[in-house]
Amino acid sequence: MSWTGWLLFILIVQVIHFLGTWKLYRNAGRKAWEAAVPVYNALVLMKIINRPWWWTLLLFIPIVNLIMFPVIWVETLRSFGRNSSVDTALGLLTFGLYIYYINYTQDVTHIADRSLKPRTSTGEWVSSILFAVVAATIVHTYVMQPFTIPTSSLEKSLLVGDFLFVSKFHYGARIPMTPLAFPMVHDTIPKVGVKSYISKPQIPYTRIPGFQKIKRNDIVVFNWPVDTLINITPGQMRGSVQKPIDKKSNYVKRCVGLPGDSLSVKNGYVYIDGKQNVLPDRAKVQFAYEVYAKKALVQTINGKYTADPIPFMVDRYNITDIYVSGIDRENQVLIHTAHLTKPTAEKLKNNPDVLDVVQIEIEEGYYDESVFPNDAQYEFNNNFFGPIYIPEAGKTVTINAQSIPFYRRIIEVYEGTELGIDNKITQNGTQVLLNGSPITEYTFKMDYYWLMGDNRNNSQDARTWGFVPFNHVVGKPVFIWASFDNTNKGLLNWRPRWERFFTTVHGSGKPVSYLTYFLVLLAAWFTFNYFRKRNKAKKK
Predict the structure, then answer these.
(1) Contact 79, 114 (CB under 8 A)
(2) Which of 34, 123, 247, 479 is found 20 to 30 A from 227 (Cα to Cα)?
(3) DSSP characters for 177-234?
(4) C-beta of residue 156 within 8 angstroms of C-beta of residue 286
């Protein structure tokens, strides 16, 4: 929906509001026309229902307003003496249209000085919960969002089972594009397994200005550009469905390529404009190795190998991503596939149970059809590809049969259907056509980024789907508030990694836990609060 469409929608809402409340406004001692003036009518309504003016702001905040509208309906009914459970139920079940019935058929009196204190403990509890949800929704949507690391693509920087806080304000909070959605959940309502949103209408992409741009090597949370899965939960993946941008699954990767960069990958390492990208000291790049051992380096259950390393592998070598991939029965050797840093691989070779550790090589020139741009004229694979140009807003590129594989999805989807534009690329021999007309160049509307995992041979990232547009960016992970091992084995089997609690995501040097400081401050607060309450009680 365009901004024009949204203005029309808001106008229709104002008409609906006026027709259903003008008489109530008059009964409250106001003018009937005051119910028709956008924004002003909401300010007047707050006075009528004896609520603060700033509630009006909440009515215009996407997602939050879905909570506030039912509250306003109920408050309006109660301001005119309709306090029964039946009235409340009818107001909610009719989506506020019950107010029309009251407005036109009932002779009601405005209660100007009605008490706002809930009449029962249940009412007080509901009121407290409601506004806690409102506050949490504002924080979740516009300030800080929790996120859990689901895969090992960023080992050893971020581990499976790390619980993060993702800042929305660093890069600028994105206004929700899908306004009709269940608060504080993503694409699916937990446990129920149904969609948490209604796809239409859509609010045009808008972003509150952030205080920094995405920097090279930043870890970034973003909406997976090619997500069409109804459920992305491992073991339950199913699809397909077209999702709005902000309801595509959340992914987290490291930004190694910025708009305007010329990027290539050589033997798994990233090069920018011909120079190898230098990662932060906390980033540990891992590669795939075959580990030949006399015995299993993973745990077994009922005689079957698991993907969980034996404790010694974790404690001694910090190896967490390993599984049995083959058996040499003749020589009684187990073959493991492990994802290791190069220093760890060298260290593992000295283990008496390990016969050999060999890096799994991918030759330059080998064509992997699953690697972007998925075109046989480019013999790219995960370890060798490029150079490629990362699009920058306002820059123009040449379009021909050789370049269109890189930019087709940008033109058709990211700057096409997702912006409400019907773009279709076709080819007539070597000639490229956009909506039937030949094109030889294209100017980008947005900035794009190249996002990859540090676990180079066990990461689905930009090498698979290509560029990530800025309007898909969610935020910047800044803090690990908790971390647990064995999160895939049920809550009772979770094992806390205390050294990772309350640590920062970015920065240099060994992460420092601030958990002790937090616990001291928490204890100090509870102590202060205890004595404060006791002193108040003595004074009474």
Answers:
(1) yes
(2) 479
(3) S--SB-TT--SB-TTT-SBSB---S-PPP-B---SSPPPTT-EEEEE-TT--EEE-ST
(4) yes
CA angle, 491 then 494 then 498, to 5° = 135
- What would the two tokens of residue 335 be? 């073959």
Question: Tens of pLDDT along 51-108?
Answer: 999 999 998 888 888 889 989 998 899 899 888 888 888 988 998 999 999 999 988 8
pTM of the predicted structure, to 2 decimals:
0.87
Positions of the chain with pLDDT under 70 = 1-2, 118-124, 126, 229-240, 539-540
What 3-state class would DSSP assign to 404? helix
| Cα Dmax for the chain | 94
- Classify 518 as helix, strand or coil: helix
Phi-psi region of 519 (alpha: psi -120 to 50; beta: other; left: phi over 0): alpha
Kind and range of the H or E run holding 265: strand 262-266
**d(Cα 284, Cα 266) in Å, to the nearest integer?**
17
Cross-strand pairs, 270 = 265
- CA-only gyration radius of the chain, Å: 29
